[in-house]
């Protein structure tokens, strides 16, 4: 998996974006909309963070924001936090990517 870094000198925030190769381009007629549906399911909770509210509350404590988007070829999931909070934000994002309900 490629890792792309784009440092901005003096930036006080950091954004971690994970791009997944999935989108309408790869869906059959029967699967139409599945990528976008799964994008929304990603935020429903994990074993460690059992609800949308739990995920939101943890990121709120960090002063962070998160979101996702679906395009024809990719679905992107991201978190944006103060630079010193990246480790905690990556833990949340990683949990959402690997442990979504």
From TrEMBL:
<dbReference type="GO" id="GO:0004222">
    <property type="term" value="F:metalloendopeptidase activity"/>
</dbReference>
<dbReference type="InterPro" id="IPR001431">
    <property type="entry name" value="Pept_M16_Zn_BS"/>
</dbReference>
<dbReference type="Pfam" id="PF00675">
    <property type="entry name" value="Peptidase_M16"/>
</dbReference>
<dbReference type="InterPro" id="IPR050361">
    <property type="entry name" value="MPP/UQCRC_Complex"/>
</dbReference>
<dbReference type="InterPro" id="IPR011765">
    <property type="entry name" value="Pept_M16_N"/>
</dbReference>
<dbReference type="GO" id="GO:0046872">
    <property type="term" value="F:metal ion binding"/>
</dbReference>
<feature type="domain" description="Peptidase M16 N-terminal">
    <location>
        <begin position="11"/>
        <end position="98"/>
    </location>
</feature>
<dbReference type="InterPro" id="IPR011249">
    <property type="entry name" value="Metalloenz_LuxS/M16"/>
</dbReference>
<dbReference type="GO" id="GO:0006508">
    <property type="term" value="P:proteolysis"/>
</dbReference>
<protein>
    <recommendedName>
        <fullName>Peptidase M16 N-terminal domain-containing protein</fullName>
    </recommendedName>
</protein>
<comment type="similarity">
    <text>Belongs to the peptidase M16 family.</text>
</comment>
């Amino acid at each position: 998996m490629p890792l792309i870094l784009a440092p901005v000198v003096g930036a006080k925030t950091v954004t971690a974006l994970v791009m997944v190769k999935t989108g309408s381009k790869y869906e059959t007629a029967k699967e139409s909309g599945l990528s976008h549906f799964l994008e929304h399911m990603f935020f429903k909770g994990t074993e460690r963070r059992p609800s949308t509210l739990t995920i939101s509350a943890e990121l709120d404590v960090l002063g962070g924001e998160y979101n996702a988007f679906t395009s024809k070829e990719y679905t992107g999931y991201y978190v944006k936090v103060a630079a010193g909070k990246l480790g905690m934000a990556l833990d949340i994002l990683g949990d959402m990517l690997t442990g979504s309900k």
